[in-house]
Design brief:
8 helices; globular; three-stranded antiparallel sheet; alpha+beta; about 350 residues
Length: about 350
């Protein structure tokens, strides 16, 4: 019995000592973990150009090129970049000396990211990197930076990162236009609620181009590239938290001799044109393109891409669903396609 009591006393004393130790050296408070940045704004920026197009001469046929850049970005309230995606549709349309099309027109003009290694920049790269690899490095460099500071990146007069730039080992192409589209994305930014990812969807189409014709009445040639792009924010459950949809129509006009006649035109997207686009007068609901596009993106909020795809449309892609037909009467197939791509590529 005495031995049992002794053991009990020892245990009691040990517990007391441990309690005292815990009081003198309490467990440290847990280290606070940094909060995950929340994307509260998204934007879509662009750059449109036909400068690479050439007039016909006595020895050379006309060649046109639409160069369309879109950039989607997610920001916090202070303008810190938390997500960035940039892509380009470079659509070259050629004519022969009679101004007949020699380029096959397509509803699927691939972007540079779509082309991957087939774009062919790697062979001329001093760092042995293809365009999609370099733009991925540039997108990574943007993350965590304030949008009003990215223009301070050291670069030469042509926009190439200079030797003191911290990305010169991974990006050797001109980045001026890429910086501008992200800055513009911030200027155009719309608020979203607690987004986790942002994706860019982009699709090119050249089927509205036409050759020269003088049968019955003269039709001058045009090279037209339509590029549809959307920036979409998704929450942690994969539902759409917000979106910004836009379309550029780069129409390059030629005269009967193959000279480009609208080279100095200021190119604008449909969102920029607003009422000047001119769809309202033909609209059965008296709504301009940008109004219908904004109604579609507002309708998408809170839905998954799969739910958005379930919208009822007719054989031509025009909505018939009663939930949306009062505010959107234009064909939406291409818009749904870019929403799907944005979801697949969101980061």
């Amino acid at each position: 019995m005495k031995r049992t009591l002794s053991l009990v006393l020892v245990l009691v004393m040990a517990i007391g000592l441990l309690a005292g130790c815990n009081q003198e050296n309490p467990a440290p408070d847990p280290v606070p973990q940094p909060e995950t940045p929340v994307i509260s704004k998204i934007g879509l920026g662009h750059s449109l150009s036909l400068d690479r197009s050439t007039d016909a001469t006595e020895t050379r046929a006309a060649s046109t090129e639409a160069y369309v850049i879109f950039g989607a970005a997610g920001f916090d309230n202070e303008g810190t970049i938390l997500s960035a995606s940039i892509d380009i549709v470079q659509s070259e349309i050629k004519f022969d000396q009679d101004l007949q099309l020699t380029t096959e027109l397509s509803q699927e003009v691939p972007s540079k990211k779509d082309l991957g290694f087939d774009y062919g920049m790697k062979v001329a790269s001093s760092i042995d990197k293809e365009w999609f690899e370099q733009i991925a490095a540039f997108e990574d460099w943007l993350l965590g930076q304030k949008v009003n500071e990215i223009g301070d990146l050291p670069r030469d007069d042509e926009g190439y990162p200079s030797e003191e730039a911290d990305i010169v080992a991974s990006v050797t192409m001109s980045v001026d236009d890429y910086i501008k589209v992200i800055e513009q994305a911030w200027e155009n930014a719309v608020e979203v609620e607690a987004a986790a990812k942002v994706g860019l969807g982009i699709k090119g189409d050249s089927t509205s181009s036409r050759a020269y014709s003088n049968e019955g009445r003269e039709l001058l040639p045009i090279a037209q590239t339509d590029v549809t792009a959307v920036a979409v924010a998704f929450n942690s459950e994969g539902k759409i938290a917000g979106a910004f949809l836009d379309v550029s129509q780069v129409v390059i006009e030629l005269d009967a001799q193959g000279a480009i006649t609208n080279r100095d035109e200021v190119l604008k997207t449909k969102q920029e044109l607003k009422e000047d686009y001119g769809m309202k007068k033909a609209s059965s609901i008296d709504k301009e393109w940008y109004e219908q596009a904004n109604a579609l993106t507002a309708y998408a909020v809170g839905k998954t891409v799969e739910e958005l795809n379930s919208l009822e449309v007719d054989g031509d892609g025009y909505p018939t669903d009663s939930d949306i037909v009062a505010s959107v009467t234009m064909g939406i197939k291409t818009y749904l396609d870019v929403f799907n791509e944005a979801y697949q590529l969101a980061k």
